[in-house]
Design goal:
The chain is mainly alpha-helical and 165 residues long. The protein has seven helices and no strands. Helix 1 runs antiparallel to helix 5 and helix 2 packs parallel to helix 5. It is flat.
Protein backbone atom coordinates (compact mmCIF):
# COMPACT_ATOMS: atom_id res chain seq x y z
CA UNK A 1 0.00 0.00 0.00
CA UNK A 2 2.81 2.38 0.90
CA UNK A 3 4.57 1.58 -2.37
CA UNK A 4 1.41 2.39 -4.32
CA UNK A 5 0.97 5.66 -2.44
CA UNK A 6 4.60 6.61 -3.08
CA UNK A 7 4.23 5.90 -6.80
CA UNK A 8 1.06 8.01 -6.99
CA UNK A 9 2.78 10.82 -5.08
CA UNK A 10 5.81 10.59 -7.35
CA UNK A 11 3.63 10.84 -10.45
CA UNK A 12 1.74 13.77 -8.96
CA UNK A 13 5.00 15.52 -8.11
CA UNK A 14 6.38 14.91 -11.59
CA UNK A 15 3.25 16.24 -13.28
CA UNK A 16 3.32 19.36 -11.11
CA UNK A 17 7.07 19.68 -11.61
CA UNK A 18 6.73 21.10 -15.12
CA UNK A 19 4.90 24.17 -13.84
CA UNK A 20 7.26 24.82 -10.92
CA UNK A 21 10.59 26.52 -11.11
CA UNK A 22 13.57 24.33 -10.41
CA UNK A 23 15.42 25.07 -7.20
CA UNK A 24 19.12 25.83 -7.17
CA UNK A 25 19.75 23.02 -4.66
CA UNK A 26 21.01 19.61 -5.63
CA UNK A 27 19.07 16.39 -5.31
CA UNK A 28 20.82 13.61 -3.44
CA UNK A 29 22.41 10.85 -5.49
CA UNK A 30 20.04 8.23 -6.91
CA UNK A 31 21.46 5.66 -4.47
CA UNK A 32 20.65 7.95 -1.54
CA UNK A 33 17.13 8.54 -2.90
CA UNK A 34 16.63 4.77 -3.15
CA UNK A 35 17.86 4.23 0.42
CA UNK A 36 15.75 7.04 1.89
CA UNK A 37 12.58 5.98 0.10
CA UNK A 38 13.26 2.30 0.81
CA UNK A 39 13.75 2.90 4.53
CA UNK A 40 10.68 5.15 4.68
CA UNK A 41 8.53 2.61 2.85
CA UNK A 42 9.84 -0.21 5.03
CA UNK A 43 9.10 1.70 8.25
CA UNK A 44 5.66 2.75 7.04
CA UNK A 45 4.70 -0.77 6.02
CA UNK A 46 6.24 -2.33 9.11
CA UNK A 47 4.25 -0.02 11.38
CA UNK A 48 0.98 -0.88 9.71
CA UNK A 49 1.50 -4.59 9.11
CA UNK A 50 4.22 -6.02 11.34
CA UNK A 51 3.87 -4.25 14.67
CA UNK A 52 0.63 -5.98 15.62
CA UNK A 53 2.21 -9.36 14.79
CA UNK A 54 5.02 -8.66 17.24
CA UNK A 55 2.74 -7.15 19.89
CA UNK A 56 -0.91 -8.29 19.54
CA UNK A 57 -2.13 -5.41 21.73
CA UNK A 58 -1.59 -3.09 18.73
CA UNK A 59 -4.31 -4.97 16.81
CA UNK A 60 -7.12 -3.71 19.08
CA UNK A 61 -8.65 -0.28 19.43
CA UNK A 62 -7.33 2.26 20.70
CA UNK A 63 -3.71 1.08 20.34
CA UNK A 64 -4.27 0.28 16.66
CA UNK A 65 -4.36 4.04 16.04
CA UNK A 66 -0.68 4.45 16.96
CA UNK A 67 0.79 2.35 14.14
CA UNK A 68 -1.73 3.73 11.65
CA UNK A 69 -1.03 7.34 12.59
CA UNK A 70 2.68 6.55 12.53
CA UNK A 71 2.27 5.27 8.98
CA UNK A 72 0.50 8.49 8.01
CA UNK A 73 3.38 10.51 9.46
CA UNK A 74 5.88 8.46 7.44
CA UNK A 75 3.79 9.02 4.29
CA UNK A 76 3.69 12.77 4.96
CA UNK A 77 7.46 12.86 5.43
CA UNK A 78 8.01 10.90 2.21
CA UNK A 79 5.70 13.25 0.28
CA UNK A 80 7.63 16.24 1.58
CA UNK A 81 10.99 14.67 0.69
CA UNK A 82 9.93 13.60 -2.82
CA UNK A 83 8.53 17.05 -3.56
CA UNK A 84 11.73 18.67 -2.30
CA UNK A 85 14.03 16.28 -4.19
CA UNK A 86 12.06 16.54 -7.45
CA UNK A 87 12.39 20.32 -7.51
CA UNK A 88 16.18 20.13 -7.70
CA UNK A 89 17.73 21.15 -10.98
CA UNK A 90 19.69 17.89 -11.25
CA UNK A 91 16.72 15.50 -10.79
CA UNK A 92 16.97 12.92 -13.60
CA UNK A 93 15.43 9.68 -14.80
CA UNK A 94 17.95 7.85 -12.63
CA UNK A 95 16.30 9.46 -9.60
CA UNK A 96 12.87 8.34 -10.85
CA UNK A 97 14.11 4.78 -11.10
CA UNK A 98 15.71 4.98 -7.65
CA UNK A 99 12.43 6.26 -6.20
CA UNK A 100 10.45 3.35 -7.62
CA UNK A 101 13.17 0.81 -6.78
CA UNK A 102 13.36 1.79 -3.11
CA UNK A 103 9.61 1.50 -2.64
CA UNK A 104 9.41 -1.78 -4.57
CA UNK A 105 12.27 -3.46 -2.72
CA UNK A 106 10.83 -2.43 0.65
CA UNK A 107 7.45 -3.79 -0.40
CA UNK A 108 9.00 -7.13 -1.38
CA UNK A 109 10.89 -7.41 1.92
CA UNK A 110 7.86 -6.62 4.09
CA UNK A 111 5.65 -8.89 1.96
CA UNK A 112 8.16 -11.67 2.35
CA UNK A 113 8.15 -11.27 6.11
CA UNK A 114 4.36 -11.28 6.32
CA UNK A 115 3.31 -13.89 3.78
CA UNK A 116 5.94 -16.58 4.22
CA UNK A 117 4.67 -19.19 6.63
CA UNK A 118 6.93 -22.01 5.47
CA UNK A 119 10.50 -22.22 4.25
CA UNK A 120 9.29 -23.03 0.72
CA UNK A 121 7.14 -19.88 0.61
CA UNK A 122 9.99 -17.81 1.96
CA UNK A 123 12.35 -19.18 -0.69
CA UNK A 124 9.80 -18.50 -3.44
CA UNK A 125 9.33 -14.91 -2.31
CA UNK A 126 13.10 -14.46 -2.03
CA UNK A 127 13.55 -15.84 -5.57
CA UNK A 128 10.91 -13.48 -6.94
CA UNK A 129 12.52 -10.61 -5.08
CA UNK A 130 15.87 -11.49 -6.64
CA UNK A 131 14.29 -11.54 -10.10
CA UNK A 132 12.78 -8.09 -9.47
CA UNK A 133 16.14 -6.73 -8.31
CA UNK A 134 17.89 -8.16 -11.40
CA UNK A 135 15.25 -6.60 -13.66
CA UNK A 136 15.63 -3.26 -11.87
CA UNK A 137 19.39 -3.44 -12.41
CA UNK A 138 18.92 -4.16 -16.12
CA UNK A 139 16.48 -1.26 -16.37
CA UNK A 140 18.98 0.99 -14.54
CA UNK A 141 21.59 0.12 -17.16
CA UNK A 142 19.14 1.08 -19.91
CA UNK A 143 18.30 4.37 -18.20
CA UNK A 144 21.98 5.17 -17.65
CA UNK A 145 22.81 4.41 -21.29
CA UNK A 146 19.95 6.58 -22.49
CA UNK A 147 21.00 9.45 -20.25
CA UNK A 148 24.68 9.18 -21.22
CA UNK A 149 24.01 8.99 -24.97
CA UNK A 150 24.96 12.45 -26.32
CA UNK A 151 22.44 12.11 -29.16
CA UNK A 152 19.59 11.78 -26.65
CA UNK A 153 20.65 14.65 -24.40
CA UNK A 154 22.11 18.07 -25.10
CA UNK A 155 24.53 17.72 -22.21
CA UNK A 156 25.17 13.98 -21.93
CA UNK A 157 28.36 14.17 -19.86
CA UNK A 158 26.93 16.35 -17.11
CA UNK A 159 23.69 14.35 -17.14
CA UNK A 160 25.65 11.12 -16.62
CA UNK A 161 27.55 12.67 -13.74
CA UNK A 162 24.25 13.56 -12.09
CA UNK A 163 23.12 9.93 -12.32
CA UNK A 164 26.08 8.85 -10.25
CA UNK A 165 27.77 6.92 -13.05
Amino acid sequence: MIALILVVVALFVLLKQTSRAKSQGNAPSPLMVMLIIGIGAFVGQALASLLWRLQPAFAAFPLVLFPLLGTLLVIAAMIWLVRRFAQAHNWTDCHHLALASGALIAHIVVGGLIFSDTMAEGMAIAALGLVVIILLMLFAIQVRNRVTDPMKSDDGASEAARCGT
